[in-house]
Amino acid sequence: MRRKAILIDLGRRLREARRVAGLTVTKLAERAGVSRRYVTDAEAGRANLSVIKLADLARALGVPLRDLADLSLGARRGERIALVGLRGAGKSTVGRKLALELEAPFVELDERVEQIAGMTLGEIFNLHGEEHFHRLEGEALEQVLAEGERVVIATGGSIVASPETFARLKETCRTVWLKAEPHDHYQRVLEQGDRRPMANHPRAMAELEAILRDRGPLYLQCEIAMETSGKTPGEVVSDLAERLGER
User: Fold this and answer.
1) Residue 75, pLDDT score
2) How many of the other CB atoms lie within 10 Å of CB of 65?
């Protein structure tokens, strides 16, 4: 299991570096002198890369070899699980159940933001704006990271819109995108009794779909994508625990 986790983590970093470099799989393969299938297998965590080929890929990507080969990163990230996704994806419900499964603390990052600010999220946005919220969000994340190596974190839906904080999250946690169909997002938010950020918008569903389209490429940067539509929270936790290597 540990060997597989290392290869998956290596593949994730390779894929992310390729996206940052703006290269297709084919272009990267050409530059590195390897086959397209080799790059695809490497990014999927199926290839047991040699140091030489890894160095060729790093050179083709224009990144230091140590950035791809830092296996200690996987060890630092392994105990922290961060759930990412739009409101209504199930982060709070799944997060609490997953924390019980893993016998780990559970933290709502938005609640930490409110504690730091001494006001509600609505008040933060109304009085200080989104930029101030994201600064507090980064501070809250650092606070949680300082508390220990084992935790399940439910993040705010817009954390991916804060490049520095999202990068820090990916660096220190195993990130999981909880996906859902737009109508499921909408219905779950209504059941929570909170339509933010959809309140007072007659075209709420269209706007929600637009947010999902805009943030989709960012959510895809997470290590794991887990579908929640059509599943009970227990089923999601069971599938996720297996993907995380906890079963």
Assistant:
1) 42
2) 15
For 160-201, what is each residue's pLDDT tens digit? 999 999 999 998 999 999 988 877 766 766 666 554 555 555
Beta strands in 36-194 (DSSP E): 80-84, 106-108, 151-154, 174-179
Closest Cα partner for 61 from 119, 19, 120?
A: 19
Residue corresponding to tokens 């980064």: 138
Alpha helices (runs of H) in 22-90, residue ranges in sequence order: 25-32, 36-43, 51-61, 65-69, 72-77
In the beta sheet, which residues pair with residue 174? 81
b/e sequence 27-37, b meaning 16+ C-beta within 10 Å: ebbebbebeee
Half-sphere exposure of 150 (CA within 13 A, CB side): 8
Alpha carbon distances (Å) from 239 to 78, 89, 178, 231: 17, 15, 12, 10
Q: Give me the chain's average pLDDT, please.
A: 84
